[in-house]
Design brief:
- By secondary structure, this protein is of the alpha/beta class.
- It folds into three domains: 182 residues, 3-Layer(aba) Sandwich (Aspartate Aminotransferase, domain 2); 114 residues, Aspartate Aminotransferase, domain 1; 74 residues, Molybdopterin biosynthesis moea protein, domain 2 (Alpha-Beta Complex).
- Helices cover 37% and strands 14% of the residues.
- A seven-stranded mixed sheet has the order 1-8-7-6-4-2-3, with helices on both faces. Strands 9-11-13-12 form a four-stranded antiparallel sheet. A two-stranded antiparallel ribbon has the order 5-10.
- Helix 6 links the parallel strand 2 and strand 3.
- Bound molecules: pyridoxal-5'-phosphate.
- The site of pyridoxal-5'-phosphate has 12 residues, from helix 5.
Length: 498
Amino acid sequence: MIQTNTSKEETRLDQNRMPFLESLLAERNRWQTSFHMPGHKGRLPLHPMMEDLLGGNPQPADLVEINGILDYLHSPKGALKQSQELAAAAYGADHTFFLINGSTVGNIGAVMSVSSAGQRVIMARASHRSVYSGVVLSGAMPVYIEPEYHPQLGSPLAVRAEVVQQLLNENDHVVAVHITSPNYYGVISDTARIAQITHQQGAVLLVDEAHGSHLNFHEALPESATRLGADMIIQSTHKTQGALTQGSMLHCNDHGLVNLGRVAQVLALLQSSSPSSLLLASLDAARMQMATQGHALLDRVITLAQQARQAIRKIDGLWCYGDELIGTVGVYAYDPTKLIIRTTDAGYTGYEAYDKLRYEHRIDAEFSDLRQVICSVTIGDTEESINKLIKALQAIAAEARPAKQPQAEVAPPAGLPQLVISPREAYFAKSRAVPIQDAVGEVVAENIIPYPPGIPLLVPGEVMEHQHLAYLDYIMKQGSGVVGPEDKSLRKVRVVVQ
Ligand SMILES: Cc1ncc(COP(=O)(O)O)c(C=O)c1O
């Protein structure tokens, strides 16, 4: 009896299978005359430029759920249910939800599933804006973990477990802690300890692992939060694996704290009722690839990244960070597939080096900041792409210029702004646009996020002070952009009508 169950389980969890992709292909191959969505009916001529772009016409496979023939994301019962079960097993979780709107919807959905008005959510100030959207929509009051800037990189990297403990001790009604790990730089916090501390207070740990969907597939990489006691883990499968853009996953672990029915309801509220089958099928294929070949593929990725790191360290004027980051400013581990390349000693800001790579060497880095460019090495890389990067960096460094003094930067005001009403109240309150100088002393009703680096200066519900105005004035004069406000020129800011 037990043996029968095991073999059934094994068949069900055969990681070579892609149940949803298989069912989609079968449906595409059936002859059919469509009187249902999508409007292209699988046979509308594509514009030749679109066809060229896509390498063919994807319409025949761009099918929707038809009377239960294809499985449906918001009530999966067949192929999609199996595909999600295979994903949960592969990524190390108890349950997986496929997402068609990126980790953006994963973060919003996770926060909304576990918090509501009158409750508190501890979250890093250096969170992706989707986490802020989550508290606007849930109505929870955020308690921010103040960013701690790394002395050399000049950016906040990790969250310290002691700080989470302190905030949990100081605040009542905390229902969730949200951290980002790894962050954009591939830097990882002590998630296992944070999970323990969070659970001791009966709160839920949400981990934005948008940049870490590959972690569970190789022992030389830091462990995924799915294995470290986190309750909900959000991954952009499209960022570090082969899924199409927007294809992401929300993994849940059963520590008795997350109501899966509620999560499904919230995701149905936030996501399209016509989920793209192409995106979903690409998640199935990405999981199968990682489950069956991930270790071998990542062996190569790690070797390539380490070779690149060593080669870059030998280039005069450049440095590529590695193990020496561990133990500094809360950094527990780092993902070696991220190359954090400091360029200032060669006389270039990170932004300048990024532009040189793009416009002179046809290489697009992941992103840049004042001091470094960051490159992400993935299963899509080859020796050729890595050699091209190293050669380009050698050429850039060879055009020696006097070292850049990173002190030119003005740090954002220390400390956190005063939060007087919840982001939700402020966001939905009656507001008016005032000239930015008149906003001093007022409660802002919109996000003001200097970009880069993307860490909010002010979010709805916070009071603008003179120091914020001076900082915004400085960065706008430096040519930096701001995301969030209606008026991108920042001449006017929306404030709450009191
Ligand atoms: C840390 C982090 N979380 C979440 C997101 C949103 O991910 P997605 O693009 O999959 O919606 C991003 C996007 O860059 C991110 O950097």
